[in-house]
């Protein structure tokens, strides 16, 4: 089976993209074909129900006659093939969510997230060739994607693996693009939005991040080309990783702030780029073989996200972007972010990872009292493990070596995802028994002995206690009123009986 997807932006002013699928069935011997639209995007662990944006679904045979189909679930369509060898499917998508995991179309540009865009066969092995034709409307002249170009066919791109196909977002429009070479490979940067950055510095700093990150993995780039797709927004900041690209959102006004440029922008670039190794290729069990119609559970996001969060700032230090003082300030802020979350006593790292589908992306006013972020506490575990490995080996080994072992040893021989036990075994190859530390950090809910571990690096944590000076309440202004939002567990406001939604009047 081969599928050609045709993208039509003729209704871009109404925020629609039209899709036409031409499906070749010459070697497909089934009498029916089930197509589905994914309900989530790998890297963002929340059911998003992408099919809610789809309408005008119709199926034709090669003569142009409509043929029967049945919608059998919220995201699946069953098509009666009879003796058909070629069919055409058309549908329309409404695209008005400018986030890194949703589609957006307007008169300026379009971001198409593959799982939110393309219908795919339910049988993941049924199709081995996916081709996309992009029809550029007048005024649009750029296409940015991780997909490979089809030789001799303008604006045609292809992929020969379903998971890789769904891992490639597509940006289309008229925007600034740049390129540089690093690690012997071409890298492309798409900047969508007003130019409020210093071009040479921006590209130079991204290149520093790329080279410093790759050193951890022996400066080997596991891709033929890499694309950074960046949307300059008025508020939001965030990103999502892919195997040879990433989508980034960053507040355009923060490029002029040297601190936010480093701690928010370059840290984001570093985080998503590091993911091309950690989680896109070094995958935990549970998200190593995707089911696109249901939640994919894992208890190991603390490694995939938390360890990545530790390395993203460490890489900036190694790249010469942070000085010593700036990096220690980052570590201080990281520790403060955990110590100010009451939920650290009620949820451990495994629980936080497993419940990502119902908690991390669905925060409410009491979330900080009930749990912790696997990003934040996971990065603490990475810091502690790095320091412990260095101490035991007299600084001859580090967490870098664990990542290299996973990359060069385990990954080469295993297509299935790793487990907690596998991580423990590889850590013990470096520096002895780590069972106690793994149990303490992954299953435990106790305070971290910062004095013990930071002393390994000649550091000491000084905590300034402001408990007597604060109500431990967060506020928002609403119609000129000061409304209480989050009431921290066991804080002064909590113990005084103040509740979320209360108005502060004096």
Overall description:
There is one protein chain. The protein has 506 residues and is of the alpha+beta class. It has four domains: 2-171, Immunoglobulin-like (Sandwich); 175-276, Neutral Protease, domain 2 (Orthogonal Bundle), CATH 1.10.390.10; 281-463, Neutral Protease Domain 2 (Neutral Protease, domain 2, Orthogonal Bundle), CATH 1.10.390.10; 464-506, no CATH class. Helix content is 29%, strand content 25%. The protein has helices at residues 162-165, 199-216, 258-274, 301-318, 324-339, 349-354, 367-370, 374-392, 399-413, 420-431, 435-443, 450-455, 492-495, and strands at residues 2-8, 16-24, 32-36, 54-61, 69-73, 76-80, 86-94, 104-105, 109-112, 120-121, 129-135, 142-145, 148-149, 156-159, 170-173, 176-182, 185-192, 226-233, 238-241, 245-251, 473-478, 481-487. The strands form five sheets. It has a seven-stranded mixed β-sheet. Strands 16-17-18-20-19 form a five-stranded mixed β-sheet, with helices on one face. A four-stranded antiparallel β-sheet has the order 5-6-3-10, with no helix packed on it. Strand 21 and strand 22 form a beta hairpin. Helix 2 (199-216) packs across helix 3 (258-274), helix 3 packs across helix 4 (301-318) and helix 5 packs across helix 8 (374-392). The chain is globular and about 75 Å long. The relative contact order is 0.08. The mean pLDDT is 95.
């Amino acid at each position: 089976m081969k599928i050609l997807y045709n993208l039509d932006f003729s209704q871009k002013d109404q925020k629609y993209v039209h899709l036409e699928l031409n499906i070749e069935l010459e070697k497909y011997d089934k009498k029916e074909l089930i197509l589905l639209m994914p309900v989530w995007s790998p890297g963002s662990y929340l059911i998003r129900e992408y099919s809610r944006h789809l309408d005008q679904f119709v199926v034709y045979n090669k003569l142009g006659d409509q043929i029967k189909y049945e919608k059998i679930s919220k995201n699946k369509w069953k098509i009666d093939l009879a003796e058909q060898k070629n069919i055409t499917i058309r549908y329309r998508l409404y695209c008005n969510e400018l986030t890194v995991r949703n589609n957006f179309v307007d008169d300026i540009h379009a971001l198409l997230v593959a799982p939110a865009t393309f219908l795919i066969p339910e049988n993941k092995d049924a199709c081995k060739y996916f081709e996309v034709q992009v029809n550029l409307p007048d005024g649009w002249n750029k296409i940015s994607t991780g997909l490979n170009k089809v030789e001799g066919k303008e604006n045609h791109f292809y992929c020969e693996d379903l998971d890789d196909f769904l891992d490639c977002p597509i940006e289309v429009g008229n925007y600034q693009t740049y390129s540089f070479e690093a690690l012997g490979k071409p890298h492309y940067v798409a900047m969508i939005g007003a130019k409020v950055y210093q071009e040479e510095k921006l590209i130079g700093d991204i290149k520093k991040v790329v080279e410093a990150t790759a050193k951890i993995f022996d400066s080997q780039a596991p891709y033929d080309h890499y694309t950074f797709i960046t949307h300059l927004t008025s508020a939001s900041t965030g990103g999502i990783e892919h195997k040879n690209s990433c989508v980034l959102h960053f507040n355009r006004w923060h490029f002029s702030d040297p601190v936010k440029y480093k701690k928010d922008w370059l840290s984001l670039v570093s985080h998503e780029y590091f993911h091309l190794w950690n989680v896109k290729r070094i995958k935990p069990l549970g998200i190593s073989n995707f089911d696109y119609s249901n939640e994919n559970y894992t208890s190991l996001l603390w490694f995939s996200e938390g360890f990545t969060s530790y390395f993203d700032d460490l890489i900036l230090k190694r790249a010469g972007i942070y000085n010593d003082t700036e990096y220690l300030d980052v570590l201080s802020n990281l520790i403060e972010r955990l110590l100010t979350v009451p939920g650290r006593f009620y949820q451990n790292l495994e629980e936080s990872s497993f419940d990502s589908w119902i908690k991390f992306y669905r925060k409410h006013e009491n979330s900080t009292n009930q749990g912790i972020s696997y990003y934040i506490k996971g990065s603490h575990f990475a810091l502690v493990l790095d320091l412990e490995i260095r101490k035991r080996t007299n600084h001859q080994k580090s967490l870098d070596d664990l990542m290299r072992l996973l990359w060069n040893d385990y990954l080469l021989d295993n297509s299935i995802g790793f487990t907690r036990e596998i991580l423990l075994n590889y850590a013990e190859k470096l520096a002895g028994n780590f069972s106690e530390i793994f149990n303490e950090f992954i299953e435990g809910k106790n305070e971290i002995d910062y004095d013990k571990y930071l002393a390994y690096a000649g550091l000491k944590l000084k905590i300034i206690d402001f408990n007597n000076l604060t109500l431990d309440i967060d506020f928002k202004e609403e119609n000129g009123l000061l409304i209480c939002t989050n009431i921290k567990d066991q804080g002064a406001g909590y113990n005084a009986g103040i509740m979320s939604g209360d108005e502060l009047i004096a």
